[in-house]
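Deviations from the work plan: none for this task. Representative record:
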Amino acid sequence: VSGVRKAACIGGGVIGAGWAARLAWHGIDVTVCDPHPEAERRCRIVLANGEWAMARLYGAPVGEPGAVAFTTDIAEAVADADFVQESAPEDIPLKQAILAEIDRHAPAVALVCSSTSGLRPTVLQSVMDRPGRFMVGHPFNPVYLLPLVEVCGGEKTDAAAIDRAITFYRSLGMQPLHVRTEIDGFIADRLMEALWREALWLVNDGVATVAEIDDAVRYGPGLRWAMMGTFLTYRIAGGEDGMRHFMRQFGPALQWPWTKLTDVPDLTDDLIDRIATQSDEQADGVELRDLERQRDDGLVAIMQALKPLGIGAGAVLADQERARVGARAPVTPDLSVAAPLCLHTARVLPEWTDYNGHMTEHRYLQVFGDAADALFAAVGVDAAYLAGGHSYYTVESHLRHLGEAPADVPLHVETQLLDHDAKRIHAFHRLVRSDTDTLLATAEQLYLHVDTKEGRVCDAPEAVRDRLAAIAAAHGDLPLPDGAGRSVGLRRQVAAE
Ligand SMILES: NC(=O)c1ccc[n+]([C@@H]2O[C@H](COP(=O)([O-])OP(=O)(O)OC[C@H]3O[C@@H](n4cnc5c(N)ncnc54)[C@H](O)[C@@H]3O)[C@@H](O)[C@H]2O)c1
């Protein structure tokens, strides 16, 4: 959609590495440029965490993930990039020097965005010869999971460049928020800073510890914020009389001398010590990487939970999944060799396992369902086809469980077409553990072609039947797979006389 095939991440720290993970997952080759001697090692940890988290958020990547390369040379990193994301330290002269160099070496059509948390784009673009293609694209940590990216242009930014960036970020599963007025700190950081200031005062004044303040957020308002933000939450708090009532009732309280928002407590050594010590106690020895994993697991769970409800970040996730299915390149099965088709791969996610530590039953059906979808896609049943009101429905399945699948093992499904006619497909799938080539399960299934609007079975169109016929011809001489045609029942030995 966006035409971006290659990207450069300038600065590969917390944020730059998060960008690299999101970009690579979406099939874009990335070159990370960072002079720090430990940059590649640190970045690879974030890439691995990101891959793990996105696998759980989205399921398998739609296509091949992009490759990630490392360099310390900006010119080399951006030379053939379509998109450049700068995530260097928050320092105006340093960012300006880096942006000037990016501008000199990146192709003229490449977009250049900065991750800055609060610096004005007009200031940053002032050193560039082509400032029209530059803007802020302010993400949130972890970049590979959180959808929000604040897009803010400077005085010299082209409107068309902003449109392109918004389209591109959206294609990465993000929710771009166009910050139309150039202000320091943009929108989200202003809100977060208000809370942060107030929290610092509460610690400074000895009212609460850092853990108590975090509890006040995560057990209460934080849960609402994830779905609705501030205004919608308060609208509901106004009861049936809504926002006007809420403003009348609680508005005057804003005049009370509660807050110290315009002030900042002196960050004395004593205050910093107090916060750092309390923060250590709160973390209770849990290491940074474990905290990051907890955070990622929690974010994935929240977004997954919000997805079927179509609320907030869950709605973005649902949209992205639909777009990814629609964008899936039609799989052209290799029919030159007479072998079952390998159209679907997966990995056993931890939440797929049960108390025995192995993949639980209904996940087998899910994997075979995904394999069936891949078969349908291969014969032309894509998003447009489904939207047109036709689909295949599964009407019969016979599963056999033959081996155990512990968490994290790679899987693939081999699919053999047994039979087909205008209305039906009869297929046999073998689920194989890819690293050991062990057969884990088989599924024999029958699918019916349906008119989804009328709710009745109908003939598949000729184009779909032709593709099925081509597969059938390639599979015609394959032996009937072991287990095909089996039914459920006890097999008794007939006693030999
Ligand atoms: N950390 C956050 O939560 C967060 C959130 C949103 C935006 N940001 C913004 O992202 C940017 C990066 O922040 P971060 O948290 O990743 O910092 P970081 O310190 O983790 O990473 C910065 C990286 O830039 C590298 N670097 C230094 N000089 C460089 C140069 N000349 N060329 C290329 N790389 C260079 C450093 O080696 C380091 O790895 C900042 O502008 C920050 O405001 C941070």
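Residues 10-16, 33-36, 39, 87-90, 98, 115-117, 138-139, 141 surround nicotinamide-adenine-dinucleotide (CB under 6 Å).
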